[in-house]
């Protein structure tokens, strides 16, 4: 979202209050996509879409993303079978972020590490910095088998 | 997250499985931050943190972001009173996204438009494209009063 409270900053009323879908892609042609579990509600993963991935998602009802590492359109679950059916997609106030509520096929795992969510570690303050604690570390599948790594 | 399934793509085992916090900032020095309601679970907003905002968030337990529009450290709620107390912060597999579960002070609104969540519109297929439907449009405060716009 954009931040308020600056005299020099103007918000676009049509973008924020209108019903025209005008997704704002960044300079790489991408828009942020937050994926949550339609049943449980927790955040499953975070990724980006380009215009093609967004169109494919809307057209098929199945989540597509842009893989920044592979530089390719990516139908989530194409290798693992963990397809994501979109129950609802929302856009934020300034239309530069999407929120998808999904049902995950197969084991229900969204993370390539085999876990249900990519967010399986908590950030905790430690010695003036921070360290991590494993909180949802159970694997629902073995990535070495699924991806043949 | 990163996408799997490419022979040329390697995952960093230490980053994914270790307990060292090693946030991966993008070329602008920012990391994505997803904010959900610790009580209700829904996504409230999406923003970015730079290293200073992340440190301030960890040190104070109150959400700070980097305002891309104002190019400034931004303590969420500094103008509106809608401070966000962080109940839990998590990081994703490749440590390039954060998930904050927060309690929002004041009216409980997270969006500068006065709404509880920035995601108050649903994206719906329409005529080969998409349009928006208002789904959580109620305002908890009047932004014209709060921000003096």
Layout of helices and strands, plus pairs?
The structure is a homodimer of 149-residue chains.
Chain A: H1 13-17, E1 31-37, E2 43-49, H2 51-60, E3 64-67, E4 72-75, E5 84-91, E6 97-104, E7 121-126, E8 129-134, H3 143-146
Parallel strand pairs in A: 1-6
Antiparallel strand pairs in A: 1-2, 3-4, 5-6, 7-8
Task: Report what the structure shows.
The structure is a homodimer of 149-residue chains. Chain A is built from 3 helices and 8 strands, in the order αββαββββββα. In chain A, the strands form 3 sheets. A 4-stranded mixed sheet of chain A has the order 2-1-6-5. Chain A has a two-stranded antiparallel ribbon with strand order 3-4. The model of chain A has no long low-confidence stretch (mean pLDDT 92). In chain A, a hairpin with a 4-residue loop joins strand 3 and strand 4. With 149 residues, chain A is mainly β. Chain A has a single domain (24-146), classed as Roll (Ubiquitin-like (UB roll)). The radius of gyration of chain A is 17 Å and the shape is globular. The longest helix of chain A is centred in the middle third of the chain and has 10 residues, at 51-60. At the A-B interface, strand 1, strand 2, strand 5, strand 6 and strand 7 of A face strand 1, strand 2, strand 5, strand 6 and strand 7 of B. Strand 7 (121-126) of chain A pairs antiparallel with strand 5 of chain B, so a sheet runs across the interface. Chains A, B: Its EC number is 3.5.4.19. Chains A, B: Residues 45-120 form the Phosphoribosyl-AMP cyclohydrolase domain. Chains A, B: It catalyses: 1-(5-phospho-beta-D-ribosyl)-5'-AMP + H2O = 1-(5-phospho-beta-D-ribosyl)-5-[(5-phospho-beta-D-ribosylamino)methylideneamino]imidazole-4-carboxamide; 1-(5-phospho-beta-D-ribosyl)-ATP + H2O = 1-(5-phospho-beta-D-ribosyl)-5'-AMP + diphosphate + H(+).
């Amino acid at each position: 979202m954009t931040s308020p409270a600056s005299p020099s900053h103007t918000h676009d009323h049509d973008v924020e209050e209108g019903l025209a879908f005008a997704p704002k892609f960044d300079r790489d042609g991408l828009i942020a996509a937050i994926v949550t579990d339609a049943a449980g509600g927790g955040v499953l993963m975070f990724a980006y879409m380009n215009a093609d991935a967004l169109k494919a998602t809307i057209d098929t009802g199945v989540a597509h993303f842009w893989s920044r590492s592979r530089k390719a359109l990516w139908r989530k679950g194409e290798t693992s079978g963990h397809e994501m059916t979109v129950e609802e997609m929302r856009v934020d106030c300034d239309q530069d972020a999407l929120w998808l509520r999904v049902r995950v096929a197969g084991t229900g795992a969204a993370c390539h590490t085999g876990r249900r969510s990519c967010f399986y570690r908590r950030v905790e303050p430690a010695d003036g910095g921070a360290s991590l604690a494993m909180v949802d570390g159970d694997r629902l599948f073995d990535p070495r088998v699924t991806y043949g790594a």
